[in-house]
């Protein structure tokens, strides 16, 4: 199984878990080491965007991006905005 397949399977398992538990999340892309997705570093994505970006047929085998869940509050904002801002700051700097 390729790293891309493993990443996609993990994201799908994570999404099933948060849906089952009713936890609002978005997914933050961690991609400074990936030329293919570098512009997405620190961006918050919903599951459909993650699935579109990381479709197996469109992701190169050397993609080493990470995806992590970010808890959202009831108004749709990150519960830990400083983590998101730090990632975006890394991308700018």
Concise structural overview:
The chain has three helices and three strands. By secondary structure, the protein is α+β, with helices and mostly antiparallel strands.
Describe it.
With 93 residues, the chain is of the alpha+beta class. The protein has a 3-stranded antiparallel sheet with strand order 2-1-3. The model has no long low-confidence stretch (mean pLDDT 88). The chain has helices spanning 3-21, 47-53, 81-92, and strands at residues 25-30, 44-45, 66-71. The chain is flat. It has one domain. The chain has 3 helices and 3 strands.
Main features:
single chain; flat; 93 residues; 3 helices; three-stranded antiparallel β-sheet; alpha+beta
Structural class category: alpha+beta
The total count of helices amounts to 3
Through-space gap between termini = 35 Å
Coarse shape: flat
Please write out the topology.
Layout: H1 3-21, E1 25-30, E2 44-45, H2 47-53, E3 66-71, H3 81-92
Antiparallel strand pairs: 1-2, 1-3
